[in-house]
Amino acid sequence: METCSIARIIRLQDLAMYRHKLCSLLFRLLPQLQGFPPGPPLKKLCKDEHVHVALTETKMVGTLPELPQDILMVIFAALEIPDLVRAGSVCSSWHSAYARLCNLGQYKQSQTPCLVYASESDPDNVLCLYSLAEKRSYKLTLPQPPIRSRYLIGSSHGWLVTVDERSEMYLLNPITCEQIALPSVTTIEHVKSIFDEYGDVCKYEISWHTGTRSSRKPPSIFALAELRGRLQWKAFVFPDTSTGSYIVVLIHNPQAQLSFAKAGDDKWTWLPPHYLYEDCIYKDDILYAVNIKGELHAFDLSGPVITMKTIITIPEHYDCDSRYIVQAPWGSLLLVFRIVHDHDLEPQPGASEYWNTSEIKICELDALWTKIKVINCLRDHVLFLGHNRSQCLSVNEFPALKENHSYFTDDNFLWTVGHTNNHRDMGILNLDDNNMEEILSPQLCSNCPAPMWITPDLRKMNLMGSMSQQP
Fold first, then answer.
1. Which residues does the UniProt record annotate as the domain F-box (predicted)?
2. Is the CATH code 3.40.1000 the one for domain 114-454?
Protein backbone atom coordinates (compact mmCIF):
# COMPACT_ATOMS: atom_id res chain seq x y z
CA MET A 1 0.00 0.00 0.00
CA GLU A 2 2.92 2.30 0.74
CA THR A 3 4.21 1.74 -2.81
CA CYS A 4 0.83 2.78 -4.17
CA SER A 5 0.82 5.95 -2.07
CA ILE A 6 4.34 6.96 -3.14
CA ALA A 7 3.57 6.27 -6.78
CA ARG A 8 0.38 8.31 -6.52
CA ILE A 9 2.21 11.31 -5.06
CA ILE A 10 4.89 11.23 -7.74
CA ARG A 11 2.28 11.11 -10.46
CA LEU A 12 0.31 13.99 -9.03
CA GLN A 13 3.45 16.13 -8.83
CA ASP A 14 4.38 15.48 -12.45
CA LEU A 15 0.85 15.39 -13.84
CA ALA A 16 0.87 18.80 -15.53
CA MET A 17 4.15 18.29 -17.41
CA TYR A 18 4.18 14.54 -18.05
CA ARG A 19 0.55 13.52 -18.48
CA HIS A 20 1.16 11.14 -21.40
CA LYS A 21 4.12 9.47 -19.66
CA LEU A 22 2.02 9.21 -16.54
CA CYS A 23 -0.73 7.35 -18.38
CA SER A 24 1.79 4.98 -19.92
CA LEU A 25 3.41 4.43 -16.53
CA LEU A 26 0.06 3.70 -14.93
CA PHE A 27 -0.68 0.94 -17.41
CA ARG A 28 2.82 -0.55 -17.06
CA LEU A 29 2.91 -0.46 -13.24
CA LEU A 30 -0.66 -1.55 -12.64
CA PRO A 31 0.21 -5.26 -12.15
CA GLN A 32 2.98 -4.37 -9.67
CA LEU A 33 0.60 -2.08 -7.82
CA GLN A 34 -1.83 -4.99 -7.57
CA GLY A 35 0.90 -7.31 -6.39
CA PHE A 36 0.87 -9.82 -9.24
CA PRO A 37 2.70 -10.18 -12.58
CA PRO A 38 1.07 -9.25 -15.88
CA GLY A 39 -1.47 -11.83 -16.84
CA PRO A 40 -3.42 -12.63 -20.01
CA PRO A 41 -6.31 -10.20 -19.26
CA LEU A 42 -4.00 -7.19 -19.08
CA LYS A 43 -2.05 -8.32 -22.14
CA LYS A 44 -5.31 -8.64 -24.00
CA LEU A 45 -6.30 -5.12 -22.98
CA CYS A 46 -3.05 -3.70 -24.34
CA LYS A 47 -2.95 -5.67 -27.60
CA ASP A 48 -6.51 -6.44 -28.57
CA GLU A 49 -7.18 -4.65 -31.84
CA HIS A 50 -10.97 -4.99 -31.72
CA VAL A 51 -12.39 -2.06 -29.75
CA HIS A 52 -15.99 -2.63 -28.62
CA VAL A 53 -17.21 0.95 -28.46
CA ALA A 54 -20.70 0.21 -27.16
CA LEU A 55 -19.73 -0.93 -23.67
CA THR A 56 -22.55 -3.07 -22.34
CA GLU A 57 -20.48 -4.76 -19.66
CA THR A 58 -17.16 -4.13 -17.97
CA LYS A 59 -14.12 -6.38 -18.05
CA MET A 60 -13.02 -7.30 -14.56
CA VAL A 61 -9.26 -7.63 -14.28
CA GLY A 62 -8.63 -9.00 -10.82
CA THR A 63 -8.93 -6.65 -7.90
CA LEU A 64 -7.59 -3.29 -9.03
CA PRO A 65 -6.31 -0.59 -6.68
CA GLU A 66 -9.06 1.91 -5.96
CA LEU A 67 -7.57 5.10 -7.34
CA PRO A 68 -9.84 8.08 -6.64
CA GLN A 69 -12.27 8.89 -9.43
CA ASP A 70 -11.03 12.46 -9.81
CA ILE A 71 -7.46 11.22 -10.35
CA LEU A 72 -8.61 8.64 -12.91
CA MET A 73 -10.60 11.28 -14.76
CA VAL A 74 -7.59 13.61 -14.96
CA ILE A 75 -5.44 10.76 -16.27
CA PHE A 76 -8.06 9.55 -18.75
CA ALA A 77 -8.54 13.10 -20.05
CA ALA A 78 -4.98 12.97 -21.41
CA LEU A 79 -5.56 9.80 -23.46
CA GLU A 80 -6.52 9.64 -27.10
CA ILE A 81 -9.83 7.92 -27.73
CA PRO A 82 -8.64 4.36 -28.55
CA ASP A 83 -6.68 4.23 -25.28
CA LEU A 84 -9.54 5.90 -23.41
CA VAL A 85 -12.05 3.28 -24.59
CA ARG A 86 -9.67 0.48 -23.61
CA ALA A 87 -9.13 2.05 -20.20
CA GLY A 88 -12.88 2.31 -19.69
CA SER A 89 -13.15 -1.46 -20.22
CA VAL A 90 -10.71 -2.49 -17.49
CA CYS A 91 -13.00 -2.60 -14.45
CA SER A 92 -16.14 -1.05 -13.00
CA SER A 93 -14.22 1.77 -11.28
CA TRP A 94 -12.38 2.75 -14.44
CA HIS A 95 -15.54 2.49 -16.50
CA SER A 96 -17.29 4.77 -14.02
CA ALA A 97 -14.53 7.38 -14.41
CA TYR A 98 -14.69 6.98 -18.20
CA ALA A 99 -18.48 7.43 -18.23
CA ARG A 100 -18.37 10.47 -15.94
CA LEU A 101 -15.68 12.07 -18.06
CA CYS A 102 -17.79 11.66 -21.20
CA ASN A 103 -21.19 12.46 -19.71
CA LEU A 104 -19.98 15.63 -18.01
CA GLY A 105 -18.43 16.88 -21.25
CA GLN A 106 -15.00 17.13 -19.62
CA TYR A 107 -13.16 15.05 -22.22
CA LYS A 108 -11.71 17.59 -24.62
CA GLN A 109 -8.37 16.05 -25.55
CA SER A 110 -7.37 16.95 -29.11
CA GLN A 111 -7.37 13.88 -31.35
CA THR A 112 -5.00 12.83 -34.10
CA PRO A 113 -7.07 12.13 -37.24
CA CYS A 114 -7.72 8.48 -38.06
CA LEU A 115 -8.57 6.67 -41.29
CA VAL A 116 -11.90 4.85 -41.48
CA TYR A 117 -12.20 2.07 -44.02
CA ALA A 118 -14.01 -1.20 -44.61
CA SER A 119 -12.38 -4.60 -45.01
CA GLU A 120 -13.69 -7.42 -47.19
CA SER A 121 -12.90 -9.91 -44.43
CA ASP A 122 -15.13 -8.19 -41.85
CA PRO A 123 -18.91 -8.41 -41.35
CA ASP A 124 -21.03 -5.80 -43.13
CA ASN A 125 -21.62 -3.84 -39.91
CA VAL A 126 -17.93 -3.42 -39.02
CA LEU A 127 -15.78 -0.41 -39.89
CA CYS A 128 -12.03 -0.24 -39.31
CA LEU A 129 -10.35 2.73 -37.65
CA TYR A 130 -6.63 3.16 -38.36
CA SER A 131 -4.87 5.28 -35.74
CA LEU A 132 -2.00 7.37 -37.08
CA ALA A 133 -0.89 7.96 -33.50
CA GLU A 134 -0.60 4.23 -32.74
CA LYS A 135 -0.13 2.90 -36.30
CA ARG A 136 -2.67 0.16 -35.73
CA SER A 137 -6.27 -0.59 -36.64
CA TYR A 138 -9.37 -1.13 -34.55
CA LYS A 139 -12.71 -2.64 -35.52
CA LEU A 140 -15.91 -0.77 -34.70
CA THR A 141 -19.29 -2.53 -34.72
CA LEU A 142 -21.85 0.00 -35.93
CA PRO A 143 -25.67 0.24 -35.91
CA GLN A 144 -27.93 -0.65 -38.81
CA PRO A 145 -28.13 -0.26 -41.73
CA PRO A 146 -24.84 -2.10 -42.42
CA ILE A 147 -21.98 0.33 -43.01
CA ARG A 148 -20.80 -1.71 -46.00
CA SER A 149 -24.13 -1.01 -47.71
CA ARG A 150 -23.74 2.77 -47.33
CA TYR A 151 -21.79 5.46 -49.13
CA LEU A 152 -19.63 7.79 -47.06
CA ILE A 153 -19.93 11.36 -48.36
CA GLY A 154 -18.37 13.40 -45.57
CA SER A 155 -16.61 13.56 -42.23
CA SER A 156 -16.50 16.48 -39.78
CA HIS A 157 -16.06 16.90 -36.02
CA GLY A 158 -16.18 13.15 -35.36
CA TRP A 159 -19.27 12.49 -37.51
CA LEU A 160 -19.61 10.57 -40.75
CA VAL A 161 -22.30 11.54 -43.25
CA THR A 162 -23.63 8.34 -44.81
CA VAL A 163 -26.13 7.49 -47.55
CA ASP A 164 -28.15 4.27 -47.34
CA GLU A 165 -29.63 2.09 -50.07
CA ARG A 166 -32.72 4.30 -50.31
CA SER A 167 -30.42 7.31 -50.87
CA GLU A 168 -31.39 8.74 -47.47
CA MET A 169 -28.70 10.44 -45.36
CA TYR A 170 -27.64 9.94 -41.74
CA LEU A 171 -25.10 11.39 -39.37
CA LEU A 172 -23.17 8.62 -37.63
CA ASN A 173 -20.61 8.88 -34.85
CA PRO A 174 -18.59 5.63 -35.19
CA ILE A 175 -17.21 5.97 -31.66
CA THR A 176 -20.43 6.52 -29.70
CA CYS A 177 -22.69 4.80 -32.30
CA GLU A 178 -25.06 7.77 -32.09
CA GLN A 179 -27.00 8.13 -35.34
CA ILE A 180 -29.21 10.99 -36.58
CA ALA A 181 -31.48 10.93 -39.62
CA LEU A 182 -31.14 13.99 -41.85
CA PRO A 183 -34.07 15.53 -43.78
CA SER A 184 -35.33 13.30 -46.57
CA VAL A 185 -33.59 13.38 -49.92
CA THR A 186 -36.96 14.23 -51.45
CA THR A 187 -36.85 17.67 -49.80
CA ILE A 188 -33.83 18.68 -51.89
CA GLU A 189 -34.87 21.22 -54.54
CA HIS A 190 -34.14 18.93 -57.50
CA VAL A 191 -35.66 15.63 -56.24
CA LYS A 192 -39.24 14.39 -56.34
CA SER A 193 -40.77 11.11 -55.17
CA ILE A 194 -42.48 8.66 -57.49
CA PHE A 195 -45.04 6.46 -55.74
CA ASP A 196 -46.24 2.97 -56.52
CA GLU A 197 -49.84 1.80 -56.45
CA TYR A 198 -49.64 1.28 -52.68
CA GLY A 199 -48.48 4.82 -51.97
CA ASP A 200 -44.87 3.87 -51.24
CA VAL A 201 -41.90 5.68 -52.76
CA CYS A 202 -40.50 3.40 -55.46
CA LYS A 203 -38.34 5.75 -57.55
CA TYR A 204 -36.97 9.27 -57.64
CA GLU A 205 -37.13 11.98 -60.28
CA ILE A 206 -34.28 14.47 -60.50
CA SER A 207 -34.33 17.69 -62.50
CA TRP A 208 -31.16 19.27 -63.86
CA HIS A 209 -31.71 23.01 -63.45
CA THR A 210 -29.42 25.44 -61.64
CA GLY A 211 -30.16 28.81 -60.08
CA THR A 212 -29.19 30.65 -63.26
CA ARG A 213 -30.70 28.55 -66.00
CA SER A 214 -33.25 25.88 -66.71
CA SER A 215 -32.13 22.63 -68.27
CA ARG A 216 -32.90 21.42 -71.75
CA LYS A 217 -32.36 17.92 -70.46
CA PRO A 218 -35.61 16.31 -69.28
CA PRO A 219 -35.86 15.01 -65.69
CA SER A 220 -34.28 11.61 -65.06
CA ILE A 221 -35.78 8.68 -63.19
CA PHE A 222 -33.66 6.61 -60.80
CA ALA A 223 -34.21 3.59 -58.59
CA LEU A 224 -33.99 4.25 -54.84
CA ALA A 225 -30.42 2.98 -54.49
CA GLU A 226 -29.29 4.42 -57.81
CA LEU A 227 -29.94 8.07 -56.95
CA ARG A 228 -27.10 8.28 -54.43
CA GLY A 229 -24.60 7.56 -57.19
CA ARG A 230 -25.87 10.58 -59.13
CA LEU A 231 -26.94 13.14 -56.52
CA GLN A 232 -24.92 13.40 -53.28
CA TRP A 233 -21.24 14.24 -53.58
CA LYS A 234 -19.79 15.75 -50.40
CA ALA A 235 -21.19 16.77 -47.01
CA PHE A 236 -19.97 18.68 -43.95
CA VAL A 237 -21.10 18.95 -40.32
CA PHE A 238 -20.34 22.28 -38.61
CA PRO A 239 -21.09 23.62 -35.11
CA ASP A 240 -23.79 26.30 -35.42
CA THR A 241 -23.10 29.04 -32.89
CA SER A 242 -26.36 30.85 -33.58
CA THR A 243 -28.48 27.91 -32.39
CA GLY A 244 -25.97 26.10 -30.19
CA SER A 245 -26.38 22.95 -32.26
CA TYR A 246 -25.23 21.97 -35.75
CA ILE A 247 -25.61 22.60 -39.47
CA VAL A 248 -25.06 20.12 -42.32
CA VAL A 249 -23.97 21.45 -45.72
CA LEU A 250 -24.35 19.29 -48.83
CA ILE A 251 -22.67 19.63 -52.22
CA HIS A 252 -24.90 17.82 -54.69
CA ASN A 253 -25.79 17.46 -58.31
CA PRO A 254 -26.83 18.80 -60.70
CA GLN A 255 -23.65 20.82 -61.20
CA ALA A 256 -22.34 20.55 -57.61
CA GLN A 257 -24.79 23.01 -56.02
CA LEU A 258 -25.21 23.79 -52.31
CA SER A 259 -27.99 22.99 -49.86
CA PHE A 260 -28.01 23.01 -46.07
CA ALA A 261 -30.08 21.85 -43.09
CA LYS A 262 -29.89 23.01 -39.47
CA ALA A 263 -30.84 20.98 -36.41
CA GLY A 264 -34.61 20.59 -36.29
CA ASP A 265 -35.14 21.35 -40.00
CA ASP A 266 -37.43 18.97 -41.87
CA LYS A 267 -36.13 19.93 -45.31
CA TRP A 268 -33.01 21.03 -47.13
CA THR A 269 -32.59 24.72 -48.03
CA TRP A 270 -31.17 25.37 -51.49
CA LEU A 271 -28.45 28.05 -51.99
CA PRO A 272 -28.68 29.31 -55.58
CA PRO A 273 -27.58 30.74 -57.96
CA HIS A 274 -23.97 29.53 -58.25
CA TYR A 275 -22.70 26.00 -58.72
CA LEU A 276 -19.60 23.80 -59.29
CA TYR A 277 -18.62 24.01 -55.62
CA GLU A 278 -15.77 21.90 -54.27
CA ASP A 279 -15.23 22.74 -50.60
CA CYS A 280 -16.53 24.94 -47.79
CA ILE A 281 -16.03 26.05 -44.18
CA TYR A 282 -18.43 27.64 -41.69
CA LYS A 283 -17.57 30.34 -39.18
CA ASP A 284 -19.68 32.83 -37.20
CA ASP A 285 -22.88 32.09 -39.16
CA ILE A 286 -21.07 32.60 -42.48
CA LEU A 287 -20.65 29.74 -44.94
CA TYR A 288 -17.58 30.18 -47.15
CA ALA A 289 -17.51 28.07 -50.31
CA VAL A 290 -15.03 27.83 -53.19
CA ASN A 291 -16.00 26.65 -56.66
CA ILE A 292 -14.19 25.36 -59.70
CA LYS A 293 -14.06 28.88 -61.18
CA GLY A 294 -11.95 30.06 -58.25
CA GLU A 295 -14.75 32.15 -56.75
CA LEU A 296 -14.90 32.37 -52.97
CA HIS A 297 -18.49 33.03 -51.89
CA ALA A 298 -19.77 34.00 -48.44
CA PHE A 299 -23.36 33.08 -47.46
CA ASP A 300 -24.78 34.81 -44.38
CA LEU A 301 -27.13 32.25 -42.82
CA SER A 302 -27.83 34.17 -39.59
CA GLY A 303 -31.09 35.88 -40.56
CA PRO A 304 -34.42 34.95 -42.11
CA VAL A 305 -33.14 36.12 -45.52
CA ILE A 306 -29.94 34.52 -46.80
CA THR A 307 -27.48 36.85 -48.48
CA MET A 308 -24.46 36.00 -50.62
CA LYS A 309 -21.46 37.97 -51.81
CA THR A 310 -18.27 37.14 -53.69
CA ILE A 311 -15.22 37.68 -51.47
CA ILE A 312 -12.55 37.17 -54.12
CA THR A 313 -12.08 35.54 -57.49
CA ILE A 314 -8.87 33.57 -57.39
CA PRO A 315 -6.76 33.48 -60.54
CA GLU A 316 -6.33 29.94 -61.83
CA HIS A 317 -2.78 29.22 -60.76
CA TYR A 318 -2.80 25.52 -61.50
CA ASP A 319 -4.48 22.94 -63.69
CA CYS A 320 -5.87 21.05 -60.71
CA ASP A 321 -8.45 18.39 -59.99
CA SER A 322 -9.69 19.68 -56.62
CA ARG A 323 -9.68 22.93 -54.65
CA TYR A 324 -9.92 23.19 -50.88
CA ILE A 325 -10.50 26.02 -48.44
CA VAL A 326 -8.69 25.48 -45.14
CA GLN A 327 -8.60 27.46 -41.89
CA ALA A 328 -4.96 27.58 -40.74
CA PRO A 329 -4.12 27.44 -37.01
CA TRP A 330 -2.38 30.82 -37.26
CA GLY A 331 -5.62 32.47 -38.45
CA SER A 332 -5.10 32.71 -42.21
CA LEU A 333 -7.27 31.14 -44.86
CA LEU A 334 -5.50 28.70 -47.18
CA LEU A 335 -6.52 27.74 -50.71
CA VAL A 336 -5.17 24.32 -51.59
CA PHE A 337 -4.92 22.88 -55.09
CA ARG A 338 -4.72 19.12 -55.63
CA ILE A 339 -3.01 18.26 -58.90
CA VAL A 340 -3.34 14.96 -60.75
CA HIS A 341 -0.91 14.30 -63.61
CA ASP A 342 -0.81 10.51 -63.38
CA HIS A 343 -4.12 9.12 -64.59
CA ASP A 344 -5.73 6.90 -67.19
CA LEU A 345 -9.49 6.94 -67.57
CA GLU A 346 -9.47 5.02 -70.86
CA PRO A 347 -7.10 2.11 -70.23
CA GLN A 348 -6.24 -0.68 -72.60
CA PRO A 349 -8.39 -3.85 -72.39
CA GLY A 350 -7.60 -5.73 -69.20
CA ALA A 351 -6.02 -2.72 -67.48
CA SER A 352 -7.60 -0.73 -64.66
CA GLU A 353 -8.49 2.93 -64.56
CA TYR A 354 -6.43 4.94 -62.12
CA TRP A 355 -6.17 8.47 -60.83
CA ASN A 356 -3.15 9.43 -58.71
CA THR A 357 -2.51 12.69 -56.88
CA SER A 358 0.97 13.90 -57.80
CA GLU A 359 1.30 17.38 -56.33
CA ILE A 360 -0.23 19.81 -53.82
CA LYS A 361 0.01 23.61 -54.17
CA ILE A 362 -0.95 26.09 -51.45
CA CYS A 363 -1.91 29.77 -51.48
CA GLU A 364 -2.66 32.06 -48.52
CA LEU A 365 -5.18 34.87 -48.44
CA ASP A 366 -4.09 38.09 -46.77
CA ALA A 367 -5.91 39.51 -43.74
CA LEU A 368 -8.20 41.65 -45.93
CA TRP A 369 -8.93 38.72 -48.26
CA THR A 370 -7.94 40.80 -51.28
CA LYS A 371 -4.59 39.27 -52.25
CA ILE A 372 -3.10 35.81 -52.32
CA LYS A 373 0.46 34.56 -52.10
CA VAL A 374 1.96 31.17 -52.86
CA ILE A 375 3.27 29.14 -49.90
CA ASN A 376 6.08 26.73 -50.74
CA CYS A 377 6.37 25.11 -47.32
CA LEU A 378 4.02 24.43 -44.39
CA ARG A 379 6.99 24.05 -42.02
CA ASP A 380 5.69 22.32 -38.90
CA HIS A 381 2.13 21.87 -40.18
CA VAL A 382 0.30 19.23 -42.20
CA LEU A 383 -2.83 19.02 -44.36
CA PHE A 384 -5.68 16.51 -44.28
CA LEU A 385 -7.58 16.45 -47.56
CA GLY A 386 -10.29 14.29 -49.06
CA HIS A 387 -13.98 13.82 -48.34
CA ASN A 388 -13.34 15.03 -44.80
CA ARG A 389 -13.51 18.59 -43.49
CA SER A 390 -10.23 20.02 -44.80
CA GLN A 391 -7.75 20.62 -41.98
CA CYS A 392 -4.34 22.14 -41.31
CA LEU A 393 -2.78 20.86 -38.08
CA SER A 394 0.41 21.51 -36.13
CA VAL A 395 2.85 18.65 -35.54
CA ASN A 396 3.71 20.27 -32.23
CA GLU A 397 0.19 19.42 -31.07
CA PHE A 398 0.06 16.11 -32.94
CA PRO A 399 3.60 14.66 -32.81
CA ALA A 400 2.67 11.44 -34.63
CA LEU A 401 2.24 13.43 -37.87
CA LYS A 402 4.97 14.32 -40.37
CA GLU A 403 5.60 18.01 -40.84
CA ASN A 404 5.12 19.57 -44.27
CA HIS A 405 3.15 16.58 -45.55
CA SER A 406 -0.35 16.18 -46.95
CA TYR A 407 -2.46 13.22 -45.84
CA PHE A 408 -5.09 12.62 -48.51
CA THR A 409 -7.83 10.22 -49.58
CA ASP A 410 -10.11 10.01 -52.60
CA ASP A 411 -12.10 13.12 -53.42
CA ASN A 412 -13.13 12.53 -57.01
CA PHE A 413 -16.83 11.86 -57.56
CA LEU A 414 -16.00 9.12 -60.07
CA TRP A 415 -14.12 7.23 -57.38
CA THR A 416 -15.99 7.90 -54.14
CA VAL A 417 -19.43 6.82 -55.40
CA GLY A 418 -18.77 5.71 -58.97
CA HIS A 419 -15.92 3.39 -59.91
CA THR A 420 -15.97 1.58 -56.60
CA ASN A 421 -13.80 -1.34 -57.72
CA ASN A 422 -10.88 0.72 -58.93
CA HIS A 423 -7.56 1.72 -57.40
CA ARG A 424 -7.86 4.17 -54.48
CA ASP A 425 -6.05 7.51 -54.61
CA MET A 426 -4.77 7.96 -51.07
CA GLY A 427 -1.43 8.36 -49.34
CA ILE A 428 0.96 10.72 -47.58
CA LEU A 429 2.62 13.28 -49.86
CA ASN A 430 5.87 15.02 -48.94
CA LEU A 431 5.34 18.66 -49.93
CA ASP A 432 9.11 19.18 -50.29
CA ASP A 433 9.76 16.67 -53.07
CA ASN A 434 6.32 15.15 -53.87
CA ASN A 435 7.45 11.70 -52.74
CA MET A 436 4.57 9.45 -51.77
CA GLU A 437 4.15 6.78 -49.14
CA GLU A 438 1.28 4.45 -48.34
CA ILE A 439 -1.00 4.90 -45.36
CA LEU A 440 -2.08 1.27 -45.39
CA SER A 441 -1.51 -1.66 -47.69
CA PRO A 442 -4.20 -1.48 -50.42
CA GLN A 443 -5.00 -5.14 -49.73
CA LEU A 444 -6.39 -4.20 -46.31
CA CYS A 445 -9.04 -1.80 -47.60
CA SER A 446 -12.30 -2.51 -49.33
CA ASN A 447 -12.96 0.03 -52.10
CA CYS A 448 -16.52 0.69 -50.98
CA PRO A 449 -17.32 2.65 -48.95
CA ALA A 450 -14.39 4.90 -49.82
CA PRO A 451 -11.75 5.33 -47.06
CA MET A 452 -11.94 8.68 -45.31
CA TRP A 453 -10.27 10.74 -42.58
CA ILE A 454 -12.12 11.31 -39.34
CA THR A 455 -11.18 13.07 -36.10
CA PRO A 456 -12.73 10.89 -33.36
CA ASP A 457 -15.02 12.66 -30.91
CA LEU A 458 -16.94 11.23 -27.94
CA ARG A 459 -19.27 14.18 -27.48
CA LYS A 460 -22.92 13.54 -28.24
CA MET A 461 -24.92 15.71 -30.60
CA ASN A 462 -27.54 17.73 -28.77
CA LEU A 463 -30.28 18.26 -31.33
CA MET A 464 -31.71 21.32 -29.63
CA GLY A 465 -28.87 22.23 -27.29
CA SER A 466 -25.18 22.88 -27.67
CA MET A 467 -22.61 21.25 -29.87
CA SER A 468 -19.26 22.57 -28.76
CA GLN A 469 -16.51 23.48 -31.19
CA GLN A 470 -13.75 20.95 -31.79
CA PRO A 471 -10.76 22.19 -29.81
1. 61-110
2. no
